[in-house]
Design a protein that fits this description.
single chain; 135 residues; alpha+beta; 4 strands
């Protein structure tokens, strides 16, 4: 039987604070979502000025990243590459860059999804949060 790492509340707070700091440093109004390894929402924060829709998109990106165990950008690239039938894939709603899995020892233990600015910037905010816990 394997022992599995899980996100704890202290990890979630650290990720959220670092992601928020990255967004604020760049004056980016975003929503930050953190999910566990099953895609369950653990944290949602919509910064001042972030569009209401971003509060739906950020969790979808995080969920896509954790369920696929890869960045949501992979799915965006597949679709942009012409495989539009992938739009019918079940349980994948956030097929835009900005969802980043949290990987520890080769296992996906959660994900961060960010929405509100350019997709590359969303991903930058997510990665900053994850880096704060040393991953």
């Amino acid at each position: 039987m394997k022992t599995k790492s899980v996100l704890e509340q202290s990890d979630i707070k650290t990720i959220a604070a670092a992601a928020e700091a990255e967004a604020l440093k760049n004056n980016w109004a975003v929503t930050i979502a953190i999910v566990d390894d099953g895609g369950h929402l653990l944290h949602l924060q919509r910064l001042d000025g972030a569009a209401p829709l971003s509060a739906h998109i950020a969790p979808a990106k995080a969920n896509t990243a954790v369920m696929g165990r890869r960045e949501s950008k992979v799915y965006e690239d597949v679709i942009n590459g012409g495989r539009t039938s992938f739009l019918s894939a079940p349980y994948i709603q956030g097929m835009l860059e900005g969802g980043v899995p949290i990987l520890k020892d080769g296992e996906c233990i959660g994900a961060v999804g960010v929405s509100g600015v350019k997709s590359t910037e969303d991903a930058q905010v997510a990665r900053a949060g994850i880096a704060a816990i040393g991953l």
